[in-house]
């Protein structure tokens, strides 16, 4: 189900907790909501639809994939950039890494490990920041 985007900074600054298999519907809702906003959004965290769980979805080219309880285990190639967010107005400076490795659960709650670079890595880092209440 497509959900409304949360734009309340006080809510968005609250920390998220790990997801469980009881949160499978949140994954589906996030995918649906990202698809509905695909013209202006490349990633989404669960708190953006009002759920404080550690779930993100990422659009990489034609593919949209979820990451449940993702943890960045390695990062290299620090750089400075600017980003925007569907939940916020404007563009803000931030620090990112060109290459990252991530441990996460897939949509079936099976453990995965992935290596990501460039823009896909940047999206993942941005969305994981949402878990800590970081607003770019």
Our count of domains comes out at: 1
| Biggest β-sheet: strands ordered side by side in the sheet | 1-2-3-4-5
The CATH architecture comes to Alpha-Beta Complex
Largest sheet: 5 strands, antiparallel
Shape descriptor reads globular
Q: What fraction of residues sit in β-strands? A: 35-45%
How many β-strand stretches?
Answer: 5
Q: Which structural class best describes the helix and strand composition?
A: alpha+beta
Q: Please count the helical segments.
A: 3
Q: What is the CATH superfamily classification?
A: Peptide deformylase
Order of helices and strands: HHEEEEEH
Oligomer: single chain
Q: Catalogue the unreliable spans.
A: none
Task: Determine and state the CATH class.
Answer: Alpha Beta
Q: Report the end-to-end length measured between terminal Cα atoms.
A: 27 Å
Radius of gyration equals 14 Å
| Helix content, binned percent | 10-25%
CATH topology: Peptide Deformylase
Could you report the average pLDDT, rounded to the nearest whole number?
96
């Amino acid at each position: 189900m497509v959900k409304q985007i949360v734009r309340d900074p006080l809510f968005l600054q609250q920390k998220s907790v790990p997801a469980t298999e009881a949160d499978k519907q949140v994954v589906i809702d996030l995918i649906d909501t990202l698809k509905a906003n695909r013209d202006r959004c490349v990633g989404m965290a669960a708190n953006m639809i009002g759920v404080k769980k550690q779930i993100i979805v990422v659009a990489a080219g034609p593919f949209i994939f979820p990451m449940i309880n993702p943890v960045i285990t390695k990062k290299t190639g620090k750089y400075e950039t600017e980003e925007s967010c569907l939940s916020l107005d404007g563009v803000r400076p931030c620090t990112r890494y060109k290459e990252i490795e991530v441990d996460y659960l897939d949509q079936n709650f099976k453990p995965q490990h992935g290596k990501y670079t460039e823009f896909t890595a940047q999206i993942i880092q941005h969305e994981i920041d949402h878990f800590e209440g970081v607003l770019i």
